């Protein structure tokens, strides 16, 4: 029974190792494996308890047969002392029969003990395997949670950065510089106009008036 159990576990481990890298949800596969392993541990534990009970029964049968052997030998001795050889012979025959039982139950008891030791080894293997896979499960869940949190952080804050801040302020800088340039240009024109008007001499002023008068007359003639 324990040999079959071991073969089943070996096949299960091989299947897990082969499929773990191929499935989309490895945690679900691991959970299925853990559930199966827990079931096997419970089955192995029940089988272990049955073997322990069976071994105790074989030991009791062996001890009982040994006790009967000693008792029949004592009875044979008493019968011989009393001169009853026939009774002594029957007691010795029963002793030999119980000696056979001692041998038989002793062999069964030894086999049961060997099976118990094998089952103990299997149980320890299953429990160690279960714990190792469970620890790996917890570790990979923690890693996947870390990855998910990192992805969320990248999605939420990935749009911000020094480069984007520089780009945003660069555009603002260009806009402000344009406004400053436009304002400064208007101021320069006004300043130049003021300087030009202030530097006109009297002769130039008379020429300017004559020119203005000529243009007005020209406009009036065009209207007629």
TrEMBL record:
Pfam family, one: PspA_IM30
Keywords: Coiled coil
Keyword Cell membrane part of the UniProt annotation: no
Coiled coil: 48-75, 102-136
InterPro entries: PspA_VIPP1
Assigned protein family: Belongs to the PspA/Vipp/IM30 family.
Full protein name: PspA/IM30 family protein
Source taxonomy: Bacteria, Bacillati, Bacillota, Bacilli, Bacillales
